[in-house]
Amino acid sequence: MTATLPPSVSLNRAAQLVVPHVRDTLLSFPEVRGVLGQLGGPEDGTDWKTANNSSYFVDLKPREEWPSGVTSEGLIAAMNARLTEIPGVDFNFSEPIKDNIEENISGLKGQLAVKVFGDDLEGLHRAAADVKRVLEGVRGVADLAVVQAAELPQVHIRVDRQAVARYGLNVGDVEDVVETAIAASRPPLCGGRAALRRRRASRRSCPRDLGSHS
């Protein structure tokens, strides 16, 4: 099952407010044995998903342990009815392998995808809403949703080249520090480009045995 949140949601807010609610709702069904979820994409970049996308693998008990009269279609309908109480989130139920095949074909997890192109974001939203209204009247359509797209907040940092040059630094040095501060990436080693240049400017050097300490 996939859940699409508003595109402007932060990773922390989604993890705190939405993911536990979805997981607890799914686990409340007696047919469910366990739930494994993923929010956004992995750090290794193998999945392009953003913070407003979450996927859940729902492990179901054997059919003989289900309550009498419950079918797969009925279970999905009951889950969807409960989950749609969460505002601003679109849900889609499918199978893992089926999802991957459909995503490779159309770029989306669905048997049929309608793509609207243009450079006017508001116009695209209106056109997508019109398409959805038309498709809602087609018999057999299920899990119909508009893939939300919006401008995401960004931070633009412009480096004053003349100012950093006065300190014997270059743009790459500043970018290393900014990346470390914002993205919490691994800081430069003592012998790295930025650290080494700063130490040369102050006539210092790294201890020879620094790399041997953990």
Structure description:
This protein has a 4-stranded antiparallel beta sheet, with helices on one face. Mean pLDDT is 77; it is low at 187-214. The two termini are 43 Å apart. The protein has helices spanning 11-27, 72-83, 96-106, 121-135, 161-165, 171-183, 193-201; strands at residues 2-4, 32-39, 53-60, 90-92. It has 214 residues and is α+β, with helices and mostly antiparallel strands.
Layout of strands and helices, then pairs:
Blueprint: E1 2-4, H1 11-27, E2 32-39, E3 53-60, H2 72-83, E4 90-92, H3 96-106, H4 121-135, H5 161-165, H6 171-183, H7 193-201
Antiparallel strand pairs: 1-3, 1-4, 2-3
The CATH architecture name of the largest domain reads: 2-Layer Sandwich
Q: Return the domain count.
A: 2
Strand order of the largest sheet: 2-3-1-4
Provide the CATH superfamily of the largest domain. Multidrug efflux transporter AcrB pore domain
Which fold does the CATH topology of the largest domain refer to? Answer: Alpha-Beta Plaits
Task: List the uncertain runs.
Answer: 187-214
The CATH class designation of the largest domain is: Alpha Beta
How many helical elements?
7
- Profile the largest sheet: 4 strands, antiparallel
How many strand units? 4
Label the structural class: alpha+beta
Name the helicity range. Answer: 25-40%
Query: Nearest-angstrom radius of gyration?
Result: 25 Å
- Strand residues, percent: 5-15%
Outline type = globular
Describe this protein with a few key phrases:
single chain; 214 residues; alpha+beta; Alpha-Beta Plaits; 2 domains; 4-stranded antiparallel beta sheet; 7 helices; 38% helix; 10% strand; globular; disordered C terminus
